[in-house]
Amino acid sequence: MNSSNSKLFNEENYLLERLAQLDEDAFEYVFEKYYPRLCLYASSFGTDQTLAEDIAKEAFIKIWKSDKNYKSLEHLKNSLYQSTKQVALNKQLALKRSIQREEYFFDNQEQYEDSPLHQIIHAEVMGELYAAIQKLPEQAKMVVILSYLEGKTNQEIADEMQISLQTVKNYKLRAIKQLRSILTPETYLIFLSVYKIF
């Protein structure tokens, strides 16, 4: 976005007019101005920084796809905050439902562990997990396999891969973050629970 556009967007009517015309520079201006505030607002719903950023971005996308005939800048700001709140609450509800499903699954695991349905669910979950692990960078993938699938300690992994202990920890942290973005929320929760991560 060039500086002349940025100055023009300081004029409320001009900015609202350009937004109504789907002007990408106008949207970028609004994004840069309000994104940090919406991240902070999203974090007030008890989310971590990464999720708060995702919520703010999703809120902007919803606004961008919606009717953009805003009556005033205040109307636009209220819409952004309302969109952020709705996205955050929806994610909270989805997470709550996922946790409830997983709690039910683990509470009843012994009863159903030998049932065909349990075997199918287990196979599906592990299949998704293995597929996600294969998408990781080579070193991170190796650390995950050695740690969570083969049960080796960080020191054993460091010795085997001939890297420092801190490097192993860094690879694990990055891998967990990447797996979160690849896996479905349900499978990610199972991954955290089964392997007692965090």
Short structural description:
The chain is built from eleven helices and no strands. With 198 residues, it is mainly α.
What is the general shape? elongated
**Terminal Cα span:** 42 Å
CATH topology value of the largest domain? Rna Polymerase Sigma Factor, Chain: A
- The oligomerization state is single chain
How confident overall, as mean pLDDT? Answer: 79
CATH-derived architecture of the largest domain: Orthogonal Bundle
Could you state the CATH homologous superfamily of the largest domain?
A: RNA polymerase sigma factor, region 2, helix turn helix motif
- Give the SSE order as H and E letters: HHHHHHHHHHH
β content, as a range? under 5%
Helical fraction: over 70%
Q: What's the total number of strands?
A: 0
Quickly list its features.
198 residues, mainly alpha, Rna Polymerase Sigma Factor, Chain: A, Arc Repressor Mutant, subunit A, 2 domains, 11 helices, 0% strand
Structure characterization notes:
This protein has 198 residues and is mostly helical. It has two domains: 3-97, Rna Polymerase Sigma Factor, Chain: A, CATH 1.10.1740.10; 114-194, Winged helix-like DNA-binding domain superfamily/Winged helix DNA-binding domain (Arc Repressor Mutant, subunit A, Orthogonal Bundle), CATH 1.10.10. The chain is 80% helix and 0% strand. It is built from eleven helices and no strands. The chain has helices at 3-8, 12-20, 24-43, 49-65, 73-107, 109-112, 116-134, 138-149, 154-161, 165-182, 185-194. The radius of gyration is 22 Å and the shape is elongated. The two termini are 42 Å apart. The mean pLDDT is 79.
